[in-house]
Amino acid sequence: MRPPVLIVGAHRSGTSATTRALEILGLQIGQRLDSHGEPKALQQLHEEYLRRLGAAWHSPAPFIESIRTAVGERDCAAYLRENLRREFTRIFGYRKNPRGLWLLTRLKFGAPWGWKEPRTTLFARAWLQIFPGARIVHVVRDPFAAALSICDRELRFQAGGDAPSGKINNLDYCLNLVRIYTEAGERLADSETYLRVAFEDIQTNPHKTLDETARFCDLRFSAKQLTNAAATIRPLNR
Predict the structure, then answer these.
(1) What is the pTM of this model?
(2) How many angstroms separate the CA atoms of 144 and 203, rounded?
(3) How far apart are CA 225 and CA 215, in angstroms?
(4) In terms of residue numbers, what domain contains 90?
(5) Contact criterion met (CB below 8 Å) for 37 and 169
(6) FRET pair for 48, CA 20 to 30 Å: which of 56, 57, 193, 209?
(7) Can you say how many angstroms the Cα of residue 120 is from the centroid of all Cα atoms in its chain?
(8) pLDDT 10s digits, 194-221
């Protein structure tokens, strides 16, 4: 099984659209996914560890303080490794049906695969201990646009009856949260397998930027697949 592609970036930074396009270009990302293309079990895996440290995706400071230490990084990697040993199939969103078994068999024969889950941005150093050589696609977006989207989504959720998620109904708080995730992603830039992609570039020139990103991920695709992938990207002015 080849090392995975980790698509990282702050919430609401264009990672979902990027992942959908890369899937069209040949990246395998599992079956049991939510509407944003994320394995729910992986979300839960990350969030449970954050909770152990008194953190959450929208309040990551205690986790970041821990993961910056060698002991914290080792403990986090051990937690991820043990859960993968027991539940790899479920965590990465594969079903126990004929198609799921076929997809898992493809992994054993070297099919390109990976996942998108924004908390991975925080956990990436630990994941790299488990999957050395993993390719990192770091999607960044204008911080204000990402923060505004986080804040707007939270207000919609609260209007629908959801309990508040920390302070993310505050735009300044969301701006700082985007900064935290962006800096966490940028700390991976010392890896030879790191690529930083501005989502605005994908929106402005999807054919060129997706072609470059997919080649970095070592995907094999046709011109028709590239055209289809580019067509899924909403232009910048919309």
Answers:
(1) 0.94
(2) 17
(3) 13
(4) 5-231
(5) no
(6) 193
(7) 6
(8) 999 999 999 999 999 999 999 999 999 9
